[in-house]
């Protein structure tokens, strides 16, 4: 063998060793990523299991299981949100803009929404929510409904039945505003005027 061939052979061996070392590091990094992903999936399954148990009990979500919430990808957050009751969704919605967008992107099915002087009641299969001090019932300066909660419900809820128990003059303008809006999530609405 010539010196030139020996140098080339030595260079090739060096390149092979570098490639083997790089491949080994890459394999170790991939294994580490698999472990992290496995831990995330395991944590997500535990959270979903706890949420399912809570959904059966119809209790509020235990916030201790949400300690690593910011580390979850949006898909996992969406799955968790879909299993939350109405009040928990509202609370999560108030935490950050990103969570607000996620909560708003998942409609909430409501069997019945009642509007009356005492506030707004929301009923679903697994949940009952009463907001007693709603601005809508106490807004006397305008005839339109001033409730942010009601606007949220009408925009993001899938409402089976909407019942309104308010004075006629407040309802007439409110109904006109609803007709002009693009809210199409109500299947049946009934008006029961009071104080005529």
From TrEMBL:
Keywords: Coiled coil. It comes from the Eukaryota. This is F-box domain-containing protein. It comes from Caenorhabditis remanei (Caenorhabditis vulgaris). Residues 69-107 form the F-box domain. Residues 9-54 form a coiled coil. InterPro entries: F-box_dom, She-1-like.
């Amino acid at each position: 063998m010539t010196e030139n061939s020996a140098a080339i052979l030595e260079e090739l061996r060096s390149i092979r060793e570098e490639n083997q070392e790089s491949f080994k590091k890459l394999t170790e990094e991939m294994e580490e990523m698999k472990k992290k992903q496995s831990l995330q999936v395991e944590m997500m399954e535990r959270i979903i299991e706890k949420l399912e148990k809570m959904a059966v009990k119809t209790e509020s979500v235990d916030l201790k299981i949400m300690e690593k919430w910011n580390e979850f990808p949006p898909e996992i957050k969406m799955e968790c949100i879909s299993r939350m009751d109405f009040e928990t969704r509202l609370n999560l919605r108030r935490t950050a803009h990103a969570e607000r967008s996620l909560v708003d992107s998942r409609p909430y099915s409501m069997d019945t929404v009642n509007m009356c002087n005492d506030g707004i009641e929301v009923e679903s299969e697994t949940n009952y929510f009463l907001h007693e001090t709603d601005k809508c019932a106490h807004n006397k300066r305008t005839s339109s409904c001033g409730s942010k909660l009601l606007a949220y419900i009408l925009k993001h809820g899938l409402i089976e039945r909407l019942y309104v128990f308010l004075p006629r003059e407040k309802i007439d303008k409110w109904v006109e505003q609803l007709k002009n809006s693009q809210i199409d999530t109500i299947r049946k609405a009934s008006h029961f005027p009071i104080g005529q």
